[in-house]
Design brief:
The chain is α/β, with parallel strands linked by helices. It has eleven helices and twelve strands. The mean pLDDT is 97.
């Protein structure tokens, strides 16, 4: 059985092992694959794994040997699932592997805004505290999280974990979710999207990207938020209209924007958010702790093994 990994570098830049997959077939791992290289690289493969390389209908129709596509991620919009099903190809993903890591990143971003620890650490490396006439100094107003309202859009595995952490900080938690009130975690208040925007001090996005959620944060929704509120996106870049967020920040209608994902990745140099002083962007790394990537590779390997055993799991 020939197995090809199209873009293995981000999941495993060398600190993990591919041995689990090697035991299941003849494995070839490419660090990166351009879209025009995909067909040639997997022409004879029965099993292919991809993280961000697109496998569209046009590729699928030129790959008669292909039997299985494993997505090295939870989101699987990089694969034309309909076309795959039409050709009898199994498609799987890796759910819930990054829950702890993404939740941790959300609060890393939030605490960056409320406490500015990196700013002070850099200032003190440059000698500012040693020159201070007082025993302390600060450049920004600090905000205590206790008593504030944390609004979560989407209450899946990550959303629920974030709710737990927010409660630990003494925050109130509201959520826009399809879950019934009876199935909500204790203490979480179900609200409409409009109420969540109007009443939350922090809004964090954790819903799938669909036609209905595309640019759900736009000029109209931003006008409903508190001017002092903080917006966090570690979900999908296109949930947010970048230009509308930049405008809201410039006009003082939003306190800060934190993001681990953008609509275009890598972003263009002229993206209006990149140099704004109240924007905090990380390069799509919330999922990338070694622990999370280790789980990712293990589940992806288990998915392939289950397929070979004729009882596939995590099928999409």
């Amino acid at each position: 059985m020939k197995i090809v990994v199209l873009d293995g570098y981000t999941a495993n830049p060398g600190d993990l092992s591919w041995k689990g997959l090697e035991r299941l077939g003849a494995l070839t791992v490419y660090d990166r694959t351009r879209n025009n290289e995909t067909i040639a690289r997997i022409a004879n493969a029965e099993i292919v794994l991809t993280n961000k390389v697109l496998i569209r209908r046009e590729e699928i129709e030129h790959l008669p040997n292909l039997k299985y596509i494993g997505v090295l991620a939870t989101g699987y919009n990089v694969v034309d699932v309909e076309a795959a099903h039409e050709h009898g190809i199994i498609v799987t993903n890796v759910p819930a592997y990054s829950t702890e890591s993404v939740a941790q990143m959300v609060f890393a971003h939030l605490l960056t805004v409320t406490n500015r620890t990196e700013h002070y650490a850099i200032s003190n490396q440059e000698g500012r505290w040693t020159e201070s006439p007082d025993f302390c100094y600060w450049d920004f107003p600090h905000m205590e999280l206790s008593g504030k309202t944390f609004g979560i859009v989407g209450l899946g595995n990550i959303g629920q974990r974030i709710a737990q952490i927010a409660f630990a900080f003494g925050m109130k938690v509201k959520a826009m979710t399809s879950k019934s009130i009876e199935n909500l975690p204790s203490g979480v208040i179900k609200v409409s999207f409009e109420e969540l925007l109007q009443t939350s001090d922090v809004v964090s996005l954790h819903c799938p990207l669909t036609e209905s959620t595309l640019h759900m944060i736009n000029a109209n929704s931003l006008r409903k938020m508190k001017p002092a509120s903080i917006l966090i996106n570690t979900g999908r870049g296109p949930l947010v209209d970048d230009g509308a967020v930049a405008e809201a920040l410039a006009e003082g209608r939003l306190s800060a924007f934190c993001a681990d994902v953008l609509t275009e990745e890598p972003p263009k140099a002229d993206n209006p958010l990149l140099k704004h002083p109240n924007v905090y962007i990380t390069p799509h790394i919330a999922w990338a702790t070694k622990e999370a990537r280790s789980r990712l590779l293990q589940v992806a390997t288990d998915n392939v093994q289950a397929f070979l055993d004729h009882h596939p799991v995590n099928v999409v």
